[in-house]
Amino acid sequence: MSIDGARQAARDVLKQYGITTAPVPVDRIARELGVRVQFAPFDNELSGMAHIRDGVVVVGVNSLHAPNRQRFTLAHEIGHVVLHRHILEGAVHVDRVLLRDRNSSAGTDLLEIQANAFASELLMPTDILEATLGGRQVVLDDDVEVATLAKKFRVSESAMRFRFFK
Ligand SMILES: [Zn+2]
């Protein structure tokens, strides 16, 4: 699957549940998909994990991380559930912090890139962003604008900046 395919899958989920405004209710999406979410204090370098236990998808989110980061983690794990359900069977999938900065040579990294693209589009959907901006371009140097957008979409400022790099 391409990165665009991952983004499209996120848009399909938003459409399915009639979500047209920010902040996107990622907890509700998890519930609708039948995902059981557990917030727990993990080591700082662990952001989240997902696996299938007795046929139920269980996602763990590091409760010690900032709330907006927890939302991104949950959206990332939902990405694995929607896109890569097969990798959650049998083994626990563990996500560590700063995957983005790693070299993406191995096949597993492609899955992480796809899950991040899914999460980014789920939390910062193209059409809601465009409607919010009203045709303007985002000035990434404008810290106030990035902070305002991040607050509205309940994502970290770095996630919002990364969203516009593509
Ligand atoms: Zn992952």
UniProtKB/TrEMBL annotation:
Pfam families from the UniProt entry: Peptidase_M78
Q: Which domain of life is it from?
A: Bacteria
Q: Domain (IrrE N-terminal-like): give its ranges.
A: 31-164
Q: Which InterPro entries match?
A: IrrE_HExxH, Rad_response_metalloprotease
Q: What is this protein called?
A: ImmA/IrrE family metallo-endopeptidase
Organism name: Albidovulum sediminis
